[in-house]
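Allow me, if you will, to draw on your knowledge of protein folds for a short while. I have a record of one protein: its chain in single-letter code and its fold written as discrete structure tokens. Could you please explain, in whatever detail you think fit, how the structure tokens follow from the sequence? The record follows directly beneath this note:
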Amino acid sequence: MSNAFSPAPLPSREALHGLLLGTAAASAAARGSDGSRPGAEATLQVALLDGLADAVEWAQAGVGADDVACLWLGALRWVKAVDGAVPDGAPEPPSRGVASALGALADAEGGDAQNLAGLRSPEMSQPHRPFNRPAATVPELASTDGPGVLARALGLGLLEHATEEDVRRLATWSAAFSHGAPAAHAAAADAAVLMRALRTGAEPVAALRESLAAPSEGEAREALRRGVGHVITALEAGSSPFSGALAAAGEHDEAAAIVAGALAGALTGPSQVPAARVSDAENAAALLLADSLGPALGS
């Protein structure tokens, strides 16, 4: 069946703003929230991508910066917003406007609990070298899988002028900050490459279907497949892709809703996202980040 609804790629700022709001609104819908309380994964997505903005700003000033380290500092800002402090022994990240807009996040709801568990570490976990603090006494935590790696990866896929190799690298490392399983890292890399394909002119349904063909398994991979499937169904029905996110939310599947919401927002922009589902903090932070990072992402 051919899809009747095939949106043209948006300017990068609009795609980023749509992705951030789409993630937040889909998460809220799945949690049954009225938008008064922020979502844990939506706010972590914003904080990590603000770390990328930090690296871009250094580069624009002619100063080299470690992009992965900047992403991790963004994650630490999120941990600080949730816990009130960074983990003992971790560096204190410099202040950023987006983190200030998010404010305190002790009441952030939902999402993959492994995000916070994995990020409560004084050192930056790396692929194949996890520093997840409890792993010393509970070794299986070094192989944690879960869908919490996907929202940040989809955001990194908006780097349309980066090579596919670079997009995969950033998505893999950002996944490793909190999740140790190679399957989660692979799912994150593939999610980022899917978004990159959508941003660089691939026909949406074809690109989405191709992403379903990856043979690897795991919790993150299954959540990616479910979310992508909902968007395909919406596109082939001639509907707005955000209806796919709402379908996942109606099944109380927050992980799939987040994937579908991020994809839908990036495809159609913020005007297609139900704004009432997005908290004031998420709205303010998304707008700041769209203005600061959006123009640097691509066209």
Observations:
- The CA atoms of residues 101 and 285 lie 5 Å apart.
- The chain has one domain: 12-297.
- DSSP finds 13 helices and no strands in the chain.
